[in-house]
Every structure is written in structure tokens, then in C-alpha cells.
Amino acid sequence: MAEIGRWRACGAALLLAAALSGPLAMAQSEPAVRDVVVWDVPALDQLPDDDFGRLARYGRSVVEATYAHIGPAVTDEAARFAGNNLACASCHLEAGLKKFGLPLVAASADYPAYSTRSGEVASLFDRVNQCMRRSLNGRPMPEDFRPMRAILAYLEVLSTNVPHDAAIAGAAAGRMPELDRAADRARGAQVYARECADCHRRDGLGVRRNETLPQMGYAVPPLWGDDSFNDGAGLARLITLANFVHDNMPNGTSWVAPTLTPPDAWDVAAFVASQPRPRLAGLERDFPDLLLKPVDAPYGPFADGFSQEQHRFGPFAPIRAEIARLKAERGAIDNPNAR
Ligand code: HEC
Ligand code: HEC
């Protein structure tokens, strides 16, 4: 928490942060940013066999097999923090070590950071719990809970050689060109049948390792339905989902040689994003300044006059232009639902 104090003291940085859209944007815009092009991640297995080394290795296991440690079907009821049987590594591919596969290599160096979603400075602990509530459709873990401490230790090791606020190569899920039309769900259904259904199945529910033991997780995770991420998750946003799919799916694909064309990736993402999934209550309170809400947030309220449909499926350029105009004119627009 001392870290947050330091941030609060740094008013100028906070103001700047407030004008931008998150840790990544912040890292790209501050003059002091150092780019880390070569990833220099210590080998977990070579850490000493002491308390910290063991904790960090346990953390890797929690990230890779989340369902087995804190999933909704684990034997110890008090440990059931996740609401679905995904793993962190279902999305943070290769346990956070894959370029454009939502890597976690810089996470520990990115935080604390201003969160436009909550309107507060978030610690890394807070950020992990956001994925717990949204991507894992569960509840936050306490700070002294061993799996949480283990995740934070693991993330700390990944960021060992990343300077604070550095921008890493291969961050997030990439950014392919956008379409100047709305993404097309019907066309996406055809792409899904051709490129995804063999693994994720026609019904999108994935393939469990064991039908009667959900705590063994998935050979292929579900993309929608009760055991998927909820509508407040990062992957429920079209831009994030489409880029993730473009750079990483079919599983094994690398950003170096994507399998899908950008239009196919946008359309299949629209198809997946329009399927049923758990709902998170209170989403209308997110983003206390509506001008800092990502253009592809699939839920209102919105500061601009565009429909929810266009926020969900694009095209996004006209929304971005209107937001820029409103920013110049009004600076900020308060969310009437924010706490
Ligand atoms: C359903 C997919 C999914 C799952 C499962 C998931 N995450 Fe995330 N996570 C994301 C996405 C997407 C983002 C980036 C969101 C954005 O673009 O703002 C993210 C962001 C993060 C960040 C911030 C990274 C940074 O550098 O800013 C951390 C830390 C994180 N997740 C940790 C975890 C941990 C730990 C787990 C497991 C307990 C987990 N996530 C599970 C999708 C997921
Ligand atoms: C070869 C099998 C395979 C194919 C084909 C495939 N996937 Fe996946 N997908 C996976 C696996 C396995 C994971 C989890 C990665 C891991 O655990 O390492 C995954 C993860 C995902 C995730 C993040 C986790 C989640 O549950 O939401 C999304 C989104 C996704 N795939 C979408 C797609 C889409 C869309 C397509 C078609 C364009 C596709 N995948 C094709 C195997 C596949």
C-alpha cells in the first residue's frame, strides 16, 4: 500500500493518468517510458528452494491450473473463489509468457496504476481481483490468502527485469486494423464452424478433461455459457477479443503468422461476443468518467450518442472521433451511476 501512497503524492502523474485510458496508454505516453524489447524472464525452476521460491512456483501452478486450487468445485469450500473452471492461463497464454497472448511479464511493473474503470489507483492485488470477479466470474481473494500471495510472487518474478512503467514488446493482444463496417455475427458463425468448433465445440462449451470432475478443468475452455467469463470481462469487449483471437487462435497460432484474416477475426469475435454468458451486476457504475470508457465497452451508459449495438460491434472510428470532440469540449463527463 506504500506504493499507492507514493502515487497519490504524485499529483501530476495522476492527472496525466486520468486523461488516458489505462496502464498501457499511460506507459506509451509518459516521456520517461523505457521500452523492453527483449524479454528477460528468470527461470522459475532455478529460484532457490526457499519460502519465496516455493511460493512463486506455487503461484505458477495457480495461474496454470486455477480450477484445481480455487475453482468452484474444489474440495475445500472456503477456497472456492473462482466462479468458473477456467485458468488464468486459458487467456494469459503460456502462463503469461506469450507475446500478444495477454502476457503478464510487465504486470508487476505496471502497478499501481490509475484504473479508468474504478476511478481509483489500483494495486496489482486489486487488478488480479478484477480478473477474479470478471474473467473468472467469481469473488475477490483476500490479500493474505496463500494462492493470492503466490500469484503476486509469481508475477513479481516475471517482472524482475522490467523497469517500472516500461512498455514491453508483445503487450496485451495486439492491434490489427479495424473494419469500417460493423463486425458481422452471421459471417462470424461460418468462420466459427470452420475454424473453432472442432476444438471449442459447436455449442461453445469446450471440452472438459473429466465430465464428472470439473475441478480438473478443460482441455479446451468454453467460450460462452455458464462456465465462461462474464459480460464485464476484458474478453467481452470486441477489440480485445478480436485481437486475441487473431494473434492466438486456433490455439498454437503466433502473432508472427496469424491464421485468420482480420475480417474473419472481427466477425468470429462478434459471433462469440453475442453468445450468452454470465452477467455481472453493477456494470453501469464502471467508468466514473464516461469519456474514459473504452469505445467497445458492451454496456452503457455512454457519453456519446451512439447505440449499444455500435459500441458492441463497431465501427469504432466514428465513436472515437466523437469522444475526442467531447473531451476537447467538456474535459470529463460524470457517470450518473458511479458511487
Ligand atoms: C477470460 C480471460 C481471462 C482470465 C481467465 C484471466 N484474465 Fe487477467 N486479463 C484478461 C484480459 C483480457 C486482460 C486485459 C484487459 C484490458 O485490456 O484492459 C487481463 C489483465 C490482467 C492483468 C493486468 C495486466 C497488466 O499488465 O496490466 C493481470 C495482472 C491479470 N489479468 C491477472 C490475471 C490472473 C492472476 C488471473 C487468474 C486468477 C486472470 N488474470 C484470469 C483476461 C483474463
Ligand atoms: C486446436 C484447438 C483450438 C482451436 C481450433 C481454437 N481454439 Fe481457442 N483455445 C484453445 C485452447 C486449448 C485454449 C486455452 C489455451 C490454454 O489453456 O493454453 C483456447 C482459448 C481460447 C480463448 C480464451 C479462453 C476462453 O475460454 O475464452 C478464446 C476467446 C478462444 N480460444 C477463441 C477461439 C476462437 C474464436 C477460435 C476460432 C477462430 C478458436 N479459439 C480456435 C483451443 C483452440
Nutshell version of this structure?
This protein is mostly helical and 339 residues long. Helix content is 40%, strand content 4%.
How widely separated are the two ends? 22 Å
Number of domains: 3
Q: In CATH, what is the class of the largest domain?
A: Mainly Alpha
The SSE order reads HHHEHHHHHEEHHEHHEEHHHH
The distinct bound ligands, ions and cofactors come out as: heme C
Query: Tally the helices: what do you get?
Result: 16
Biggest sheet character: 2 strands, parallel
Structure characterization notes:
The chain has 339 residues and is mainly alpha-helical. It has three domains: 2-168, Cytochrome Bc1 Complex, Chain D, domain 2, CATH 1.10.760.10; 185-273, Cytochrome Bc1 Complex, Chain D, domain 2, CATH 1.10.760.10; 285-330, no CATH class. Helices cover 40% and strands 4% of the residues. The protein has 16 helices and six strands. The chain has helices at residues 2-9, 11-18, 23-29, 51-64, 66-70, 88-91, 93-96, 107-110, 124-133, 146-158, 185-195, 197-200, 238-248, 262-273, 308-313, 317-330, and strands at 35-36, 113-115, 120-122, 167-168, 207-208, 218-220. Strands 1-4 form a two-stranded parallel ribbon. Strands 2-3 form a two-stranded antiparallel ribbon. A hairpin with a 4-residue loop joins strand 2 and strand 3 (120-122). Helix 4 (51-64) crosses helix 10 (146-158), helix 11 packs across helix 14 and helix 13 packs across helix 14 (262-273). The longest helix is centred in the N-terminal third of the chain and has 14 residues, at 51-64. The protein is globular, with a radius of gyration of 20 Å. The model is unreliable at 1-30 (pLDDT under 50). Bound molecules: heme C (HEC) (2 copies). One heme C binds next to helix 6, helix 12, helix 13 and helix 14. One heme C binds at residues 22-23, 63, 66, 86, 88, 90-92, 102, 104, 106-107, 110, 127-128, 131-132, 135-136, 151, 172, 229, 233-235, 240.
